Model the fold of this input.
Amino acid sequence: MALARQLFDRILSRRTQLGLAVRVTVAATAAYALATALHLLLPLWAVLTSIIVTQMSVGRSLKATRDYMLGTIGGAIYGGAIAILIPYSGELGLLGLLVLAVAPLAFVAAIYPNLSSATVTAVIVLVLPSMHHADPMASAIDRVSEVSVGAITGLLVSFLVLPSRAVLQIRASAAKLLELIAAAFTELLAGLTRGRDNDALHRIQDGIGTAMVGMNTIGAEAERERAARLSGGPDTGPLLRTILRLRHDVVMIGRATVVPLPIDVQVRLAAPLAEVSAAIVRFLKSAAEAMREGAGAPPIHPVHVALQHYAEAVAAVRQDGLIRGHPADTAERFFALGFSLEQMHQNLCDLDRVVGEWSEAMADKPARSGVSSDVSS
Done:
């Protein structure tokens, strides 16, 4: 029982992936049933298309459907035109037509990857009639019909069966990124006094880069949903830009903390740096939790206080001349660290504002639902 419960909990923690599996299954089954009922020549293509266009989010499904349909229609028109306008006989003639069809479409697909289905469609339109002794025009029409059935089925299933909105996925993606930035920041500031684990830091930085790519993709899908009025929520642009700037701050701090500070400077700045690290990490983690749960924005006042104490300690270090006598690159890193922390402070203020906007948007949803239910009743 304990093993079964553990397995159930692990599966339940992957709700988004589980929902996709359910949608793909429903889409494939429905597409096959519909294609069979319509007596389409090859129901297989309807099933495959429904699987292709059923994606992790509604926004991604919209893009996949648009791209696949454009490629299919273009490939069917081009392949059908070649087969009709250029008579051929025998295998050598068909081989020549294949070269004429594949080469330009493959070139177009290399420039516009979203049209890659055009090449496949053109080949099917050309080759299938020779196998079934059918008319090229009929082959093109069949291909478009099969893909249309699969695309429409997959898109409808994405809307109706456990729909997953990109605007919700971006919240989880942003929360993960903020936690990774917090981990990197902790490791970087610790390196000023004890040195740092570069292997661990590289793993964190690589994870941040990968997560940034994923969040940008989800952001584009969320904006596609907003443009189609399929979901609401704030504009994703400010959130994406703020987190990207925070990532740049981490990179700049990393360059300024390549080696530890001089011992006498470490002693003076150890406590202020520890306060800064604790305050910023706590704020980033709280902001991540707020994004994930839709809670209110965390208080940023401790960050202001910690950075003010650090600025006062830096001013005292400069006044006492503790930087004098050290190599020029040490002074450069010392001042670069202060500048980077100030930049991060500004971006954390922007994050505070953005998280507040997203939290307010989540708070408005139940209220609007309650209003609409009252009106309907």
Remarks:
- DSSP finds 13 helices and no strands in the chain.
- The CA atoms of residues 58 and 159 lie 7 Å apart.
- Residues 366-377 have pLDDT under 50 and may be disordered.
